[in-house]
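Duplicate of earlier report; L-aspartate oxidase input re-posted below.
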Amino acid sequence: MDVIVVGSGIAGLTAALHADAAGHRVRVVTKDALGDGCTPLAQGGVAGVYGPGDSPRLHAEDTLTAGAGLSDPAAVDALVTDGAARIAELIARGTAFDRRPDGSLMLGREAAHSHPRIVHAGGDATGAAIAAALSAQTRASGAEVIEHAFLIDLVVEHGAVRGIRVLRHEEPETLRADAVILATGGAGMLYAHTTNAPGTTGDGIAAAIRAGAAVADLEFMQFHPTVLADPAGGAPFLVSEAVRGEGAVLRDAEGRRFCFDAHPDGELAPRDVVARAIARRAAEQGAPVRLDATMLGAARLASRFPTIDRVTRARGFDWAKETLPVTPAAHYLMGGVVTDLDGRTTLPGLFAVGETARTGVHGANRLASNSLLEGAVFGARAAAALDAPLTDWPAAMPPVAAAPPLTAAVLPVRRADLQQLMWDKVGLLRDDAGLRDAVAQLARWTADAASADTARTRTEYEDANLLLVARATASAALARTTSVGAHHREPAAAPALIGA
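Output:
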């Protein structure tokens, strides 16, 4: 079978390696260089190694709790059951997870986990280590790698996906296949402040929408609580939740630990709770919240978090002696293209894995360090499902009518205007009036785009994708009238956030 994998993070490369090992002809099509994207930026680790007193059952319970009742129990069971095998596979493929002097894996704990079960590599460079190992394995495999090829759209024939259209060397090109696996990541660039890589523009999700595949839960964007609020205006830089797992605390402008006002677990409460607590406190006091890691000491900070230590010092902070100003930023999309437990979408021949997919694992709020695990687990499951004929495509998947033809048109405003609208109106703290304003404004921009020139460059295609996904996201947020997990609706207009 000819298989195209679009994307080269942990989910895409895991799927590609498994498909290649199964004898399929595999082409990995990636927007930038192999292994770029959000995976190498991941400071946190991979959950799923169970020490004394821990178990897959307890991991599942923590995941379901974080998901605020909206996680799919079957998907969560698949995640925690397959997790150990996928972590062992990452080790076999060359990922050097941190170990204790006795040779055992060093296990960390992060927010909302009941036990230490998270492995890291290079302290806070887990994603970079995984991306490097999987990229090397892919280049050594039989898979063909096509770099710097931008996904324009899916090729749909007779109700099934049969390839993709890409922009390569500034020219459109069609690549045909028997199956396509979307692994293009999320859509963090919808927002003015994000931890995501610049290329995270919702390309796979937008292409799936245009092709008629079902999407869901786009309103559930997770905002990471602790991104460095650099007064010098540097790019957003994530300060891993693992820092709080090691004992760091959050303090307001008066030096008070305020997170316990919002949740009994304080700084280790679910991410959505901590992020909202930070946003509100910063707005109330007109000053950034501070992350205090001074009690950990310079030596421990440098050895456990070498990347954070290097970057914060380069930006003029000595976090062993002073607190760091932090703010929330858009981080991870829990929704996406709807799939079954094997990555199959509502459109025959189309699979989706990783952050592009809505597997049901995360529900309304992702548990820390479950994202890399999800990519590995469901990437492998999708590859294993490739041999099933299209006639066996899951009957339980809801039928979806083909979408009307959509032409990617040039965004009629600056990308920054769209991002600021989403940040202000469809961000961490939402209200009905703001969501209605956003939906109306996005509809006006969409109407204006209909008479604009057709996209021709990568940037223009990205902007068109952002507008399409923004409209779907804002509409989903408006339709969900109750607060749950990462989707929080204020009874009145929310206070303005301190800019990241």
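Residues 399-405 have pLDDT under 50 and may be disordered.

Merging into the original ticket.
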